[in-house]
Amino acid sequence: MNSKISLFVAGEEYTATADSEGKWSIPVSNELEDGEYNYYITATAPDGRTGNYSDYFIIDTKDPDISFTLNGELRNDITNVTMPLLTGLTEAKSTVSIIIGDSEYYTTSNSVGEWSIQTTRALQEGINNYTVTVIDQAGNNSITQGTVTLDTTILPLTGIKFSHSADDRNSNTYTPTIEGWGEPGAMLTISIGSRSRTLTIPESRKWFFAVPPGFIQKGRTTQYISFKETDPAGNSNQKNIKFNFFTDKPDVSADLSPDSDTGIHGDKITNNLSPTLTGKISSARLSPDMIGRSKISLTIDGVTYSNISVDKNGNWSFKLPVELSPGYIYHYTVNASDFVGNTNSYTSFIKTSPLSGSLDIDSITGQNSIIETSNKLPTLSGTATIGSELVININNTSQKVSVDSSTGAWTYKVTESLGDGKHTFTLVEKNKNGKINTFNGYFIVDTRAPELTASISGIKDGKIHDPNVVFIGKTEPRALVTISVLGGTYQTKADNKGDWSYPLNNKELSVNQTINYSVIASNAAGNRSKASGSFYIDTINLTVGIDDQNSSKDKDVVTNNNKPIFSGVTENDSNVSLKINNDMYSTKADQYGHWSIELQKELPDDTYTYTVTVNKGDKMNYISDKITIDTVALPTHINPVNDFDSHIHHDSYYTNTNQPTLTGISEPHAKIILNINNNTSETMADENGNWELKTVSLKEGNTENNYSIKIIDRAGNISEEVTGQIIFDNTPPDLNNVSIHHQDSDNQLVTLSGKTKSNSMIVLSCDDNNDYSTRANNEGEWMLKTYNRKDESYNIKVIDQAGNESEWVIKTPASDTTTIVPEKVEIIDTHNIQNDSMNIIAAEIPPSENGVHSQYSADVGIEHHNELSL
């Protein structure tokens, strides 16, 4: 009792005194972090006797971690095992309890925190809720909840086939795309022997597999491919499918059909101007059913006829639907495609006999047919073989017809009046060799005007109640119908039954007024009938406007408000709707007819078509138009002021004119605002965005003139301001530090170099009319290679970025030199010279034998001449 107690822990000493019963307690005042701590205690009695004790303790204030898996798999939310093994990891020696479904299980984690529980009751198919609770040795606990899905089924693999082949499991390529259907999220393994590829089936269930080169061995005619799908729960199914490969080109032939091959068989000559071509397609590996799925296309006289059928024996036949011109050779190409897409072609020709006949152009009375006429005594014309005897048989009579000896042309006028209907004729010619050719033709005589009715759809008592005006009626089949209304002319054609209709754009019409119209129907022979009438659009007026429209042109509707407000006037209490960008808005006009609709969704910058519709009772009206949303103005830039400006510094421009005209490109119809030295000028861009503006006078003396430029576009947007400098420089460039150095041992080539204004153009003119050019660098240094002029001079022209120029003559020195500095030569003032007509022509001159060539040619007016001697 009354002993002194000392506690040593975590580097600190704590003391206390035992009570009369020897009891004591010591609170550790310094907070300890989680972990293991050794401690040491000494007790000293009043009489000096001592005692010692040591041990350790663990501070654990954290809830234990929990990990949970099914059957040791990475996913812990799905399984196909009805009574799965549950495993996990937490703190060592912790108590683990799991409630899953209606069952509860307990276990204790081992020394490294591992635990496992074998469930003994089957899970329900589908979602099963679970709760895992862990209590560690310090009494801390953690709870986690979730779901486990029991999935013991998998959707079958279906629809496996080639994607782009004409046949599901037959292909003409060894790198096809295969497609099919399966379970979303399942892994699909596609295998041929040891070769395999894996993909994940997407949410749409439909998968595609592009077969890589080498996956299917070339030359194989068949191949079995294995498809195995495995879903996240471990369910799987497999299919082995046989695919066939056909890669041989089909054989194809073509010729005139026997009945079209008139005259000598096999000479490819026919007098049938709409001949029939026939042929055959064959391939050794294709069955009759496969052959019958082939297709033929024929190209002749610039027209291609596709999808010509082939029978099971490979035979095909096609009669031309149009007439060829007589006396010509027509080359044709037949393209054959078998059932999997292998193709081959055959090319040949046919020749049409010159014998032909039809209605003469003066007897064609209609606009849409060359075989119909309203003339009862028509003239026929055509061609025949020169020097042949020609007879025409028509209307039960035979007549000889003369053939022009130089052209073969003939004409024949019918002498007895013909009745309405179809009339056939036959031409028979006998040529000089005794060969007989025949030609059969026909034409139609039609003298009757077509019947015609015309009205307005939905009209009642001469009125309609909406602006959708549709003309309707009936006339002769395929007749041409012409409608005249409000100064406009519109045309349509009757169908095969004679019915016709034509919708008129409501913008062409005005409501609440009588509108007159006339309709004319004309048939193929040119006979005409006329009908007329009137209608009254009895509906409600409607106006539409954009409240915050800002347009530079009356016909354009442009705004920078991406939620514009539409408004207008109509009849009071009418129902108003607006459709724009597939969204519909509605409102009701007030007692005065005013209405307004503000969009609720922002529109991205674009041009949109909108329709405003108004209804009241049985009356309707609408207006459709376009609106452009434009919320951003793009900044403009200035073009280089002259052709010599290198424009290395993109915000600086050079000129030798104190009032230059600036140009640029902007948004169409934008206002351009230019400020130079605090002086503001404005102009408008044209419809292509081009603009031009003459500046105020610039500061002289190679001085920078600061500018800023911005635009205000049609929608009222203001662009970012672009700033820079325009440098006015009217001083001709000097030419200093000129040197000449021989490049080769035989003195054929020399290098000229020197110094002038930075970025100036150096042009060397030679007697061979070639010009050699270069541009000085930022320090004004330049170098040119050329032929050695020997005893002659070099003419050099220097043009600076502002367009100022000077010309120099450099005399050839007696010996090679590299450091000669010419004496200063006075430069004539040229600031008043007009350089607006300066023309620079770029050219590329072929290299000479020594490799020297011209890169630049200049045609420049020079007002001064300086000579420099070396």
TrEMBL record:
It comes from the Bacteria. Transmembrane segments: none annotated. It holds the Pfam family Big_13. Residues 10-61, 76-152, 252-348, 358-447, 551-631, 643-729 form the Bacterial Ig-like domain. This is Bacterial Ig-like domain-containing protein. It comes from Salmonella enterica subsp. enterica serovar Kentucky.
